[in-house]
Amino acid sequence: MTEPYDLITMGRIGVDIYPLQTGVPLAQVETFGKFLGGSATNVAVAAARLGRRTAVISRTGRDPFGDYLHQALRDFGVDDRWVTPVAGLPTPVTFCEIFPPDDFPLYFYRRPKAPDLAIHPEELDLAAVAAARIFWITGTGLCEEPSRAATMAALEARDRRGTTVFDLDWRPMFWGGEGGASGAGGATGAAARAAARPYYEAALRHATVAVGNVDEAEVATGLRDPKACAEALLDQGVELAVIKQGPKGVLAVHRDGRSAEVPPTPVEVVNGLGAGDAFGGSLCHGLLAGWELEPMMRHANAAGAIVASRLACSSAMPTAAEVEEFLAAR
User: Fold this and answer.
1) φ and ψ at residue 159, rounded to 5 degrees
2) Nearest-angstrom CA–CA distance, 18 and 117
3) Quick check: helix, strand or coil at residue 141?
4) What pLDDT score does 193 carry?
5) Average pLDDT, integer, range 124-133
6) Is the pLDDT of residue 187 over 70?
7) Disulfide-capable partner of 11 in 41, 128, 138, 196 (CB 3.0 to 4.6 Å)?
8) What gap in Å lies between CA 70 and CA 42, rounded to an integer?
9) CA dihedral defined by 121, 54, 255, 294, rounded to 10 degrees?
10) Quick one: pLDDT at residue 184?
């Protein structure tokens, strides 16, 4: 086998179609840009931009958009060997509206089913998954079979070797709701959360790091206070819980008693989508480097802030030099 990857991520991939005008409803947008997208994929890109050897496990359609995604991955230096086509399913596309500073509605076109949810356990290179220095999974990967079984098979193959990150990545529309609302008929998604929680709890038993915002942590724990969420995640088996608190910054709590709470890095927001993925790529970079919690969170916050100040996601991911320059200026 080749040298282990620094990071293998498993989850969504697709084409992001972003307006080239901000503050304009989608119905009135006239021009768009096309970008590589999908949270797990963006995390791999973010870490690659920071100098890490990364790969993605996902699926596309057998179509021109799938071809585009392969080329984009290669251009970003991300290994695409485990991104394979699924016959009969189109490559997903995602549209967004951009209303800075904090309103970025997403419209997912993943019908009849997204190829990245058609990953089967027997298709996985479990030796590579087990050997990776960091393995990253997402909550979306648990929402439907066979992706759910494949995700759990990968987690079991790792057997808590190295670092296994569970991105809580809560998307209620993938758990029985439509248009951002849950099966219970509301934006908060009580029925969807209840359906997801057992699968989140099962995945947490195999993870060493959990990362998500308060809404995502609530799916896993039933709690909303950040410190209580972090403690509950530690109780479920992880060694490090990272809770993103939006304008309050980020809280990181380790099982050994260390903790850090770091304020956000102010920027003029252009598009907040992708900031969390930049944060994730930087988090992996810091974990691989063995950084202490506070500098690791500051670097991750800075990476996310840089992406929030740019239009795109994948192509907006900063290099190590850009993050260092950004931090030095503050």
Assistant:
1) 50, 40
2) 23
3) helix
4) 87
5) 98
6) no
7) 138
8) 13
9) -160
10) 37
288 — phi, psi (to 5°)? -65, -35
Find all residues with CB under 8 Å of 137, minimum gap 6, and list them: 9, 10, 11, 40, 151, 154, 155, 164, 165, 166, 167, 203, 207
How distant, in Å, are the alpha carbons of 22, 112, 225, 233 from that of 254? 39, 41, 17, 10
**What CA–CA distance (Å, rounded) separates 73 from 61?**
15
How many CB atoms within 10 Å of residue 109?
Answer: 14
Q: What is the spatial distance between Cα 153 and Cα 139, in angstroms, rounded to a whole number?
A: 15
* 32-37 vs 54-61, strand pairing mode: unpaired
Residue positions counted in the chain = 330
Element (H, E) at 321: helix 320-328
- More confident site: 223 or 187: 223
Q: Where are the beta strands (DSSP E) in 62-207?
A: 78-86, 93-96, 106-109, 134-138, 163-167
Q: Which pTM value belongs to this model? A: 0.94
* 3-state class (DSSP) for residue 60: strand
Can you tell me the distance from the alpha carbon of 195 to that of 218, in angstroms, rounded to the nearest whole number?
13
Q: What residues contact residue 289 under an 8 Å CB cut-off, 6+ apart?
A: none
